Amino acid sequence: MPSIADEIDLLVVSADSALVAANSALALEEWRVSYLGPSGQLKSIMARLKDAPRDEKPLLGKRLNELKGHLESSFESRKSVTATAPSASTIDVTEPGQSLGQGRRHILSRTIDEIVDVFGRMGFSVADGPEIEDEWHNFTALNIPEGHPARDASDNFYMGDEAGLKRLLRTQTSTVQIRAMESQPLPLKVVAVGRVYRPDTHDATHFSMFHQIEGLCIDRALSLVDLKTALLQFARSYFGPEAEVRMRPSFFPFTEPSAEVDMKMHIRGQLQWVEIGGCGMVDPNVLTAVGIDPEQWRGYAFGLGVERIAMRRYGISDIRWLFENDARFLRQF
Ligand code: DAH
């Protein structure tokens, strides 16, 4: 076994070099425990002092005290150095600027903002409604009675009952028509944008969540001419002065008459008809459901698909790409 004097010499060398290498708070603490702790190396040499020859004890005792003082003061000064030294995460403000790459808004968000902006300039204000709806707003008030196939469990995401009403993820933004008529004074001119949900199998043209923009205008004397004018005004402002609107007779429970809306727009240099939604004159049953007298007031309404507009406009052939958040795809727009 080495003598106590040799051990003291060895300990000074190993403690000093280990301390230089300790450059984090955690490493420093480990060093302190290893050398100065209650079961540390200093203590274990001190414990051997009682076995030393009696005449060497005073000198060894003095050296051990000096060793203790050396370890303690080295520890304190190292601690103050590591506390002020820059860590790896410190920003060097003198370093030449590194480009972090600029983010941008999602192509759908931008499309929505642009569409709402156009309708805003046409005098529509923005209305809002919840994505979790009750059957009154999603069906009953929209003239879709109990037992109607549109209420089928396989075509809706039902979410249980509240106060005797079934709740579901809304399948159309037409729900906001009802909410606006229930809460706002007449006349009324609103648009609402938001997510709608349908249990569709995902493929290139179907997704279980997508966005619609809904429009509703209620006034004393409105006709199909006002509806078509509003849609044409939108088409020309959004798609350009050559855009056209075509209405094809159709059926929706909440409008009478009803039509499908096509808009003619430039697609990669060519003017093409694109089907983008539905529209019509608000059915008198819908007005009555929310306490509006259909003898006094009339309305027109429309609902357009946001993804459809964005996909045709930007040549996107698969709806799933819009929701996969692959930056390589999104960066193109
Ligand atoms: N809500 C219909 C749908 O999701 C679209 C629609 C058609 C909305 C006619 C309307 C409308 O406001 O008048 O298929």
CATH architecture of the largest domain: 2-Layer Sandwich
- pLDDT below 50 for ≥5 consecutive residues: which ranges? none
CATH topology of the largest domain: BirA Bifunctional Protein, domain 2
How would you classify the helix and strand content by structural class? alpha+beta
Q: Give the helix proportion (percent range).
A: 25-40%
Count of alpha/pi helices: 11
Give the neighbour order of strands across the main sheet.
Answer: 1-5-6-10-9-8-7
- By DSSP, the count of extended strands is 10
Characterize the largest beta sheet: strand count, sense, and whether it forms a barrel: 7 strands, mixed
So what's the oligomer here?
single chain
Number of domains: 2
CATH homolog superfamily of the largest domain = Bira Bifunctional Protein, Domain 2
Based on Cα principal axes, name the global outline.
elongated
H and E order = HHHHHEEHEEHEEHEEEHEHH
What ligands does this structure carry? 3,4-dihydroxyphenylalanine
CATH class of the largest domain: Alpha Beta
- Give the mean pLDDT: 93
| Beta strand % | 15-25%
Rounded to an integer, what's the Rg over CA atoms? 38 Å
